[in-house]
Specification:
Elements lengths: L5 H15 L9 E8 L4 E6 L5 E5 L3 E6 L4 E7 L5 E3 L5 E3 L4 E6 L3 H4 L1 E6 L6 E8 L11 E7 L9 E6 L5 E5 L38 E7 L5 E2 L17 E4 L4 E6 L6 E5 L17 E6 L3 E2 L5 E2 L3 E2 L1 E4 L4 E5 L26 E3 L43 E4 L6 E6 L5 E6 L9 E6 L5 E5 L12 E7 L11 E2 L3 E2 L3 E6 L12 E8 L2 E6 L5 E4 L3 E10 L5 E10 L5 E8 L9 E11 L3 E2 L11 E7 L5 H4 L13 H9 L2 H4 L11 H7 L6 H11 L1 E3 L2 E5 L7 H12 L14 E6 L10 E9 L10 E9 L2 E3 L5 E3 L1 E3 L6 E3 L5 E8 L5 E5 L9 E5 L5 E5 L11 E3 L6 E8 L5 E2 L1 E5 L2
Parallel strand pairs: 16-20, 33-39
Antiparallel strand pairs: 1-31, 2-3, 3-4, 4-5, 6-7, 8-9, 9-10, 10-11, 12-13, 13-14, 14-15, 14-16, 17-18, 18-19, 19-25, 21-22, 23-24, 26-27, 27-28, 29-30, 30-31, 32-34, 34-37, 35-36, 35-38, 38-39, 40-41, 41-42, 41-46, 43-47, 44-45, 47-48, 49-60, 50-53, 51-52, 52-59, 53-58, 54-57, 54-60, 55-56, ...
């Protein structure tokens, strides 16, 4: 028998650990469920028994969502302060308002809820208790618990996170209430007379002030509170508030407590500086923090992993020594507390605008750390959607700008061990609060992607986990969504799937105004609607285990969709050629309104536009309003880049947000020939000062070409935006743009008409869009192939056998006289045949073979008109092709 060695024991223990380690669940076991949409600046929420959700909107409304009725009701409307005043007296939208709501731990018995809000008539942020047992909130039940005195001049950073621990202590986060945008992205410690609003030493660094803190109090039945043991400063400490649990916070956001350890976790929003400075200090970071006990988390003297700022005289612009992490000293004249502060605690996770070397999975770009819950299975009882054991003890965090959720694995000491994306395909839009509900689902409140406005994408969602049988994934479509009476519609469930492979039952319900009209129990029924109005066809799909899911499609009966058609009477309708003349005639027919032909539809009501897009086209950009072509369509690439980046968080097209509007920027630099280069550099490097004190972060992860594309788009707003005059419904157009690059550029022909609607059926919109593509077609842009292999970058097609082919669908062959094959290699007695309708269809042309065996790259083709599926058939294997070029010579 072999002796047991230390190595053997290590291998055995490692095997056991790995065997017991839970596997990561498949992503398709998680389902995103949208509960409510188009919310109005939602801030924080709480989940009640039965799945009801109570949430606060910054503008003052307290609302409740009831899943039983799928409705949101207003239960209170607080009159709140939402503005701040600048040094010049200008009023601007600020962060104050209705910040949060939380239920008392004994709510089931005492019916107490706590509200944190900004009263209109006094400069405080107030924590109050109310009694609420359902229905409307009785404002007369308010008991003021705590006031946080704030400035309403040049301020921001409110905090507002609230939670209770197992001892019924209430934690409340407060921001530093300091205007930091005049500090060049570094720490705001301006000690000059009259500059207290710009000095965070008065708040975060002040032991005698409640701002820039996480407070911990114990609410009492009479509406007062007591101080629990273990706060940062014992009761009776001179010049120190006993409510303080952590200090040195800039803008602590959503709080979470690990139910197993009692440790406190939160996200911390940092300043806006992109670059470090030897004379000032480190670049800025957002943080995710943990407090195992009370402590000082460093702001405004330290950031990230205790990186120190330098002392700085804002009057003389001279720098001094680095602040001492072990003994920070607050000598500001705005400080009313202790001068010597507790040693600074390091952040657990810190990340800049640029990609983080320590935490690369966090990506790059704008940042706004939010935080989230620590998952423990034991926190739930009979939860229907309980997350799997893989997430046990993990901290789920999110970021308002970046939109991801990360699962952070913590070690036995509650510190960072690793992190990974949770549901990588999920991108949130302004996640502002996130917590688990009693049903085990992860609920997320999305504010949307713009400051201080009602974002249409704001919504309340939950993410359900199903460890057993999974819900069907439903698709519901109709072959037409509007029409005259009687309206016959073919409904389709095509695309509906079940991850478990179950046999599914289908039920369609047709309702009008909420009243059930028809029911079908087949997958793809045909519906006939005989009365005018708007209907909803809802498909519910159920598996054998009772799991169900639904999706709806709206139907409009009594008003047919106009039929709009671009007819080409001369020229090719698939490709454009230099200096070619295209004659067109637009036809419009509408069952109710008439047609262009009978003149009941005036030509002036039909919108006709032709545009050239140098970078190809995006049909979502081509879509436009009835009487105005989107003149910015050429900037489709820039719009896509803006959508992917953090630009929309701070800028809007024509209204001021955190930063200036795109229109204001464009007008400021109108006529400046150097603006494009200057702004491209500024966007990449970051900066401030031109538009006040707001700091724009660096975008160093974006290429110069990408940023330049965005800048060109922004500068285009200096041009007066007027509706483009519609072209005539019958006319001639010359394609006077030379094809510049292979496979680049498109002409977009579009005609549109919106009918007049009826009393019972809304107006319908019809359009026809014809895209004339570049006549040089790369092989990887063909529509289909058979027996073709491609090289690594898909730039060369290689015939694997005789009869291999490439295919182009519905190609207009009008005026095409030759087809050139680009990049063909030598073949032995081989040809490329051009056939229509099928690979064995009519032969309309072929390449010829020269005496030396090389391929003649130009093939003459039979004169044809109309559209065909065209096949390019290789008669011998091994031929190599890069592109197919259409010619009208």
């Amino acid at each position: 028998m072999k002796p047991i060695t230390a190595l053997s024991l290590l291998l055995v223990s490692s095997y056991i650990a790995n065997a017991q380690s839970p596997e990561k669940p498949d992503e398709n076991r998680f389902t995103k469920v949208v509960l409510q949409q188009k919310l109005e600046e939602p801030m924080q929420f709480q989940i009640l028994d039965g799945g009801k959700v109570l949430y606060a909107e910054r503008k003052g409304k307290l609302k409740i969502y009831d899943p039983a009725t799928n409705k949101m009701d207003v239960i209170a409307d607080f009159t709140v302060s939402r503005e701040y005043v600048s040094k010049t007296g200008e009023r601007s939208e600020g962060e104050d308002g209705l910040q949060g709501v939380i239920l008392d731990p004994n709510y089931a018995k005492n019916k107490w809820i706590y509200i944190f809000y900004s009263p209109k008539d006094v400069s405080v942020n107030r924590l109050s208790r109310f009694t609420w047992a359902g229905g409307k909130l009785n404002m007369a039940t308010e008991k003021k618990v705590l006031d946080v005195v704030v400035q309403r001049e040049e301020c921001c950073h409110v905090g507002g996170g609230m939670l209770f621990d197992k001892d019924n202590n209430l934690y409340l986060s407060t921001g530093d209430n300091t205007f930091s945008r005049s500090s060049d992205g570094f720490t705001p410690t301006d000690e000059r007379p009259g500059e207290a609003p710009r000095d965070a030493q008065k708040s975060s660094g002040n032991t005698n002030d409640l701002r820039g803190k996480i407070l911990r109090i114990h609410p009492e039945p009479n509406g007062s509170y007591t101080i629990p043991e273990g706060n940062l400063f014992p009761k009776g400490t001179a010049n120190a508030r006993p409510e303080i649990y952590t200090m040195g916070n800039r803008n602590p956001w959503r709080l979470a407590i690990d139910s197993h350890t009692g440790w406190l976790y939160w996200g911390e929003v940092g300043p806006d500086g992109s670059n470090s400075s030897e004379s000032r200090g480190p670049r800025s970071y957002d943080e995710f923090n943990v407090a195992k006990k009370s402590g000082n988390y460093g702001w405004p003297y330290f950031i990230g992993n205790n990186q120190a700022y330098r002392q700085y005289d804002f009057a003389t612009k001279k720098s001094g020594e680095l602040y001492d992490v072990l003994k920070p000293v607050n000598n500001s004249p705005n400080n009313t507390g202790l001068k010597v502060l507790p040693p600074a605690e390091s952040a657990m996770i810190w990340y800049p605008y640029a990609a983080s070397e320590e935490f690369p999975v966090m990506g790059s770009g704008g940042r706004s750390a939010v935080g989230g819950p620590v998952f423990h299975k034991s926190d739930f009882t009979n939860a229907k959607y309980l997350f799997p054991a893989y997430y046990e003890g993990k901290w789920l965090i999110t970021d308002w700008v970046r939109g991801w959720i990360l699962a952070v694995t913590l070690d036995e000491n509650g510190m960072y061990k690793s992190m990974e994306r949770f549901l990588p395909e999920l991108t949130l839009r302004g996640a502002i609060d996130m917590k688990f509900g009693p049903d085990g689902s992860l609920y997320v409140l999305e504010y949307g992607n713009g400051y201080f406005k009602d974002n249409p994408e704001a919504e309340l969602i939950k993410i359900e986990f199903n460890g057993g049988n999974r819900k069907p994934q439903v698709q519901a479509t109709a072959n037409k969504t509007a029409g005259a009476l009687p309206l016959k519609v073919k409904l389709s469930s095509e695309g509906t799937t079940d991850s478990d492979g179950d046999a599914l039952k289908y039920e369609w319900k047709i309702t009008k105004g909420g009243v059930l009209k028809q029911t079908f129990k087949t997958a793809n029924p045909e519906v006939q609607l005989t009365a005018a109005g708007v209907y909803k066809a809802t498909l519910t799909v159920t598996d054998p285990h009772g799991a169900k899911n639904s999706k709806s499609v709206d139907l409009v009966a009594g008003n047919a969709t106009p039929v709009v058609k671009f007819n080409f009477t001369k020229g090719n309708s698939s490709f454009y050629f230099p200096a070619s003349i295209i004659n067109y005639a637009v036809s419009v027919t509408d069952k109710e309104d008439g047609s262009l032909a009978d003149k009941r539809i005036p030509a002036s009501q039909v919108s006709v536009a032709i545009n050239y897009l140098s970078e190809g086209y995006d049909m979502t950009v081509v879509a436009q309003n009835q009487n105005q072509f989107d003149v910015s369509a050429q900037y489709a690439k820039a719009k896509a880049l803006i959508k992917k980046s953090d630009c929309n968080a701070c800028h809007a097209v024509d209204t001021k947000s955190l930063g200036p509007s795109f229109t204001d920027v464009a007008l400021k630099y109108k006529g400046d020939k150097t603006a494009e280069g200057k702004l491209t550099k500024k966007v990449i490097d970051g900066g401030s000062g031109v538009w006040g004190d707001a700091m724009m972060p660096a975008h160093s992860s974006m290429s110069t070409a990408e940023v330049n594309s965005i800048v060109k788009y922004v500068l285009s707003f200096s041009e007066k935006k007027t509706a483009q005059k519609s072209l005539p419904v019958t006319g001639s157009y010359t394609t006077n743009v030379e094809p510049d690059q292979p496979n680049k550029g498109s002409f977009i022909f579009r005609a549109a008409y919106k009918d007049h609607g009826t009393k019972l059926a809304p107006a319908q919109f019809g359009e026809d869009v014809v895209v004339l593509r570049h006549p040089y077609v790369l092989v990887n842009n063909t529509d289909n192939s058979s027996e073709i292999s491609f090289n690594d970058n898909k730039s060369v097609a290689i015939a694997k056998s005789k009869g291999a082919y490439l295919q182009l669908n519905k190609v207009d062959l009008t005026d095409i006289k030759q087809i050139e094959f680009v990049g063909s290699d030598k073949v032995s007695a081989g040809k490329i045949e051009i056939r229509i309708d099928s690979p064995e269809g009519k032969l309309i042309g072929q390449s010829s073979v020269k005496e030396n065996g090389s391929l003649n790259t130009v093939a003459n083709i039979e004169a044809l008109k109309g559209k065909y599926n065209v096949y390019f058939v290789f008669t011998e294997p091994s031929a190599r092709l890069k592109a197919i070029s259409m010619k009208n010579l």
